Amino acid sequence: MKILAVRVGRAGDILMVTAALKAILDKWPEAELHVLTSLDGKRVLKGFHERLTSLIIYQRKGLKGLLGRRWVKKAINKTVYDQIFCFELNKRFLKLLDKQTAPIRQITQEDSITKYSRRCLKIVCQGDELNDRWLYLPVTEQGRKLAREQLQQRDINDDDFVIGLHPSFSGFRKLSFRNRDARANRGWPAEHFAKLAKMFAEYAETQSRRIFVIMDLTPEDRELGETIVSLSGGRVISFIPPLNFERYKALLQRMDLLVSPNTGPMHIAAAVGTNLVALFAGYDPRDCGPYVPDSQFKVLRAEDMAQPELGLAAISPEAVFEACKAFLP
Predict the structure, then answer these.
(1) pLDDT tens-digit readout, 250-297
(2) Is the Cβ–Cβ distance between 43 and 9 less than 8 Å?
(3) pLDDT tens digits for 50-66?
């Protein structure tokens, strides 16, 4: 039996379907799973499960997108599928599947707000129990080894309490008019991150506990990281290691707490079991928030603050620290 799942997008988009992918593998234990996805999807889903045997890459934009649709359709039609699950709302994806005779189940936009991850699960389970099926991402021992070595370079040991800050988001450095809303809704100010780090440091002193605040950044985010470190008076440790997704997953899993806006790393951390304080503005967490047990995360929304027009900046460091208390030692 062969099953095709369709989800194209950035890392966070792919992470939100992992509960449904795991449900497919559980429901059909002899089936082979193929996924039509993006380059980000290829990175996220590599090693996801031994029965996920094929990743068909679809690039939506630019010349590769125009030329690639014919290749993608051809790649899909090399296999006769028994079931197809389309986790995309756009009907154009159905055109890529029009030669397939298998039943196709596609998610719909429901009137009431239901988390996207749960809508994906519903078309897989179809009446079966949905509870206790959450975002999922495996972490390798090699990844854990690399993450441990990274932390030990800064004298951070296995029994220390580690708080991660994720200050960036996809397209952070773009200065286009279109990116203005993204900056307001996904970019919590550097000075807020710095003040929060100072509050963690003060808390650590009162608890006589080794608490470390870290950031794991890409080279493109170096300037942002240096700004936060400087504003915090050195209370944040900034890493810019070689890019390695297995190491990054393991580092997020090692964190005792992550503070992040609505980004891909927020979903990755959720999928590896890390406690979260997630910051939202302009997006509804009832739709795209972390799909994990409620005990694992707290959500703060700019829309619930005194000046929601400020976007994510409306959420104060004090409010975030208060939410973090639920997870602090």
Answers:
(1) 999 999 999 999 999 999 999 999 999 999 999 999 999 999 999 999
(2) no
(3) 999 999 999 866 555 55
Q: For the domain that residue 180 is a member of, what is the CATH number?
A: 3.40.50.2000
Rounded (10°) angle between helices 141-152 and 245-254: 70
Q: What span, in angstroms and rounded, lies between the C-alpha atoms of 169 and 189?
A: 12
Q: Where are the beta strands (DSSP E) in 176-285?
A: 211-216, 237-239, 257-261, 276-280
Residue 107 in domain: yes
At 137 the pLDDT is 97
130 in a domain, yes or no? no
Do 105 and 147 fall into the same domain? Answer: no
Name the nearest CA neighbour of 16 among 95, 88, 113: 88
Decide: 38 and 61 in contact? Cβ < 8 Å.
Answer: no
Enter the DSSP assignment of 44. H
Burial of 210 (0-12, 13-18, 19+ CB in 10 A): middle
Assess contact for 68 and 16: CB atoms under 8 A.
no
What residues have CB less than 8 Å from 226, skipping those under 6 apart? 238
Query: What whole-number distance in Å separates Cα of residue 174 and Cα of residue 27?
Result: 43
Contacts of 232 (CB under 8 A, 6+ apart): 193, 194, 195, 197, 198, 213
Decide: residue 79, CB within 10 A, 0-12 exposed, 13-18 middle, 19+ buried.
Answer: middle
Distance CA 287, CA 299 (A): 13
Q: Is residue 84 part of a domain?
A: yes
pLDDT in tens, 187-198: 999 999 999 999
| Count of domains for the chain | 2
